[in-house]
Structures are given as structure tokens and as C-alpha cells.
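Reopening: GMP synthase [glutamine-hydrolyzing] still failing for me.
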Amino acid sequence: PVLVVDFGAQYAQLIARRVREANVYSEIVPHSVTAAEIREKNPAAIVLSGGPSSVYEDGAPSLDGEILDLGVPVLGICYGFQAMAKSLGGEVANTGLREYGATAVTVSGTDSVLLGGQPAAQTTWMSHGDAVSKAPAGFEVLASSESTPVAAFASDERKLYGVQWHPEVKHSAFGQAVLENFLHRAAGLPGDWNSANVIEEQVERIRTQIGSSRVIAGLSGGVDSAVAAALVHKAVGDQLTCVFVDHGLLRADERKQVEEDYVASTGVRLVTVDAREQFLDALAGVSDPEQKRKIIGREFIRTFEAAAEALVLEARASDGDAEVKFLVQGTLYPDVVESGGGSGTANIKSHHNVGGLPDDMTFELVEPLRTLFKDEVRAVGRELGLPEVIVGRQPFPGPGLGIRIVGEVTAERLEILRAADAIARAELTAAGLDDEIWQCPVVLLADVRSVGVQGDGRTYGHPIVLRPVSSEDAMTADWTRLPYDVLAKISNRITNEVRDVNRVVLDVTSKPPGTIEWE
Ligand code: XMP
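Support: Ran it again with your exact input. Result attached.
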């Protein structure tokens, strides 16, 4: 793989995605990684990410300098570029001039390996206070900006490269070309990683992991679990039984879509468990978001365990050898990284399929999507022949409507939210906006009431929040500018058709600082 060393900002994931967009497989490793650990992974190339620190700050993440001596091509970006310069004997100085945002750069190395084929004057996206003031001996300076004499450097001989700007950000006009030059030209990587390889590789891996054992998969109705289960089904056929837990936190019609559409398109064996009461009981009296997430995660696993036990008993009765040892989960790469797995970044939310797992769980996990981003999962799903209604579906969190009711979850509140959500989704689809929005959580502020008037009477009802967002991977997002007439229609219908709701409000916050879900 290409290893992306994470120096602690959000950039590492973006870099990993862009590398994959160049059809080269990439993985993120924490900045504490040692040269020995890197050697063990036998990477084809290394990218050092940007980060929030100054290389001279106390406690600034440092770079194991031996990484630069491994003979593996390295590209340093922003902080990674400075860390590299410092480690190689160059100079990094606080110029007192911050460059932030769109910045003009003059490229002198227009026939270099790294910046070849690029215009001499270009706009890049910068975010830094320190700057490299002197390149290390033997390095050629390839670009500069007004406040940065050394904005890019290279040693073709040592295959070490660096840029001060962020090529992974779309605002850097020729950013992707920098990455592609590094990967294809400097490191000589062919760019042959695609969904067909992913499927082939995962099928092989799944077969090795599962052997002749039995496996169950939880279907949530969402894209991830559907694709994960389809992959496992391709690998081990009817050793797989899919379990769909109706936890009562589903959207309208979701159960029917899984029981009918998905089964028809894949041929998987499906068991539906009605656990609506169990979940409501477990959630009674709880309004803290993290606690809700943990409870939902725990009940999920317990439900699977019970379903698995039933399968074992049933199978024992028929063929004698039927241990159900494995559980499939549609965990994605951002879940792994956001839950603090692998990068040392802060735990922002306990995603129910990672951080919320109980310690006494008895299944071994099969997570064939653990290294993939959402758009890559969709591509795999399409390659597997899953229908567009499933593959193109907007993301829906595992804890479902449970984390879209701010306050305690009750049957009555779920019914209100389900009705409002169905209206919003129907109107957004009718307006042809599904492709423009990444997802549109509909949130019930169950503990908030406001005064309204309807007919001749005073009402005292709850607000519903619409949270339409546009995003590439849910790591960052912006609120979607929906047409006013669509918003008006949704608002009208919800306040007229859903009891106890007398107000509809629009969430106009990007991520960060807001997350996509309210809890
Ligand atoms: P946030 O709210 O963290 O959400 O900005 C990012 C994306 O993740 C989804 N999400 C979850 N998905 N289990 C999941 O499977 C969870 O616990 C969970 N929490 C949030 C959210 O819908 C958005 O797409």
C-alpha cells in the first residue's frame, strides 16, 4: 500500500481518498509509527500529512527520520513537508506571515518529476504559520510563494518530495496532478486498484477467515451492511444467514425494503427479529446521546447472539456441525478512524458498530469494508450487481431514529419522527434532489415545545429540524441550499399532517463545527 502518515488534522483521510482516486490503494498510519513498523508494511510509497502543530512546538508530533532512509518514495505535505525539511537538515522558520486559503504559487520546476506539466503560476490552498526557509542540501527548490521561499522541493535521487500547500484539497487547482505525479512518476505505481480487485481480494480474505464455519450478518437497511453481506455471500454462499433486527428505530417502509428488495436481488437467507419492545425498554428514561448509542450497540449484539444461538440449535438438529462463529459488520474506514482506531485522533462519537461493542461479545468480526470509504463501497455494490435503490441509498446511522430524537426515545415520539421523515424524504425525492444531498437527517426536538396557532386554537408542540447536507465522505459537510419552495412544501405538509409538530426549522451549520447527526 501507500501509507499516509497522519500528523493529526483531518487531512490524512482526504489524502488517502485522493490517492485511491488515482487508483492506488492507501492506508492511514499514526504519526507515532516507527521506521521499523513501516518497513514491515512494505509500502510502495509514503505520504506525510499536514497537521495543526508547529514543528518547533513542545510535544509537536515528530517524524522518525529513518523513514526517509528506507529507500521508499516519500511526499511530505504542509506539516509533513516541514517535518521532512527539518529532519533532513533544512531550515524551518516562523516567518510571522500566515498563509491561509487560496495562495498564488510560482512553480520553477515545471519540467520536474513532481510538478511537471503544470503552469508556472497557479493557485494553491495553504494553511500554515511556519515555512521552510532553506531546503536541505541536495534538494532542488521547485516552487515559491510570496511568504514562502521554499514552497516545494525534490530530490529525485533519494525520491523525496515535498509541497507546502495541500494538494488533496480541491481548491488547489493542480493538486490531484501533484499526487498523481508523485504516485505514478516518482514512485512508479501503475494505478490499477479498483472495485473489481477489492471484491476479488475480499472474497479471498473472507474465505480464509471463515473457513467452513457459519456466519451471520446484520442488515440495517443501509448501503454498508447490504454490501458487506453481499460480499460475504459471494465468498461463502449459504454459510451466511442475514439477520435483520427491527429495533423499532427504523424509517417507514424500511423493513419491507430489506425483506423484499434485497432478498430478491441477492438470494441471501434472511431472518427478521422483532426486537421493538426490547430496544424501547432498554432506552426508557435515557436521553444522553452517548448512553443511547452504547445501549443500542449492546442490544444489537445481544440480539444477534440470540439469533445466532437459535441458528446453531436449528443447524445442530439437522447436520450436527454448525458453529456460528462470525458476525459481519459494515464498518467503514471513516468509522474506524473517527472512533480513534488507528490514528490517535479524538473520539468524537461512539459509532455503534465500533466504539459501542460490549467487551463480552462472543463473535469474531468479519468487516470487509473496514478499509473503504463510502463512495468506494457504492462502487463495490454496483460491481456486485446490487440494485440502485440499495446502492444509491442515503446513509442512515445504525442507531437509527434513536439518535434523531433529542431527548428520551418513546414509541409515540418515534411515530411522530417517522411520519415527518417520510414526508421530507418523499418531497426531496419528488423534487429530484436525491443526488444533490448526501443525506437529510430529520430530527425531533422532543424536549422542546413552542407555542403555535392552528385554526383558532393555541398549540404547544415540538419542532422538527431538517438537516440536509452535502458531503463527499461525511467527514466534512456543508448544509445544502435547498430551494425555498421545496422547504415550504415540506414544512407545510409536516405541520399539517404530523400531530404534535407545529414548527419546522432548518439547520444551517456546516461540519465542522456541527456533526451531521444531532447526537
Ligand atoms: P456525524 O453525525 O458523525 O455522522 O457527522 C457522520 C456519518 O455517520 C453516520 N453515523 C453513523 N453511522 N453508526 C453508523 O452506522 C453510527 O453510530 C453513526 N453515527 C453517525 C451519519 O448518519 C453520517 O452519515
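The two ends are 35 Å apart (CA to CA). If you still see a failure, please send the error message rather than a screenshot.
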